[in-house]
Amino acid sequence: MLEGAGKFVRLAGNVIPNVKKALKKSDDPEEAVEETREAAKEGVQETAKEQFKASIQEKASDMKESLEEQVQENAEYVDEKSDEAEEKMQEGLEKAGEKVKEVKESGEQLQEKIGGSSTKKVKHADDLKSVNEIKGVNDIKTPKDIKGVPHIPSYND
Question: What is the reported pTM?
Answer without folding.
Answer: 0.38
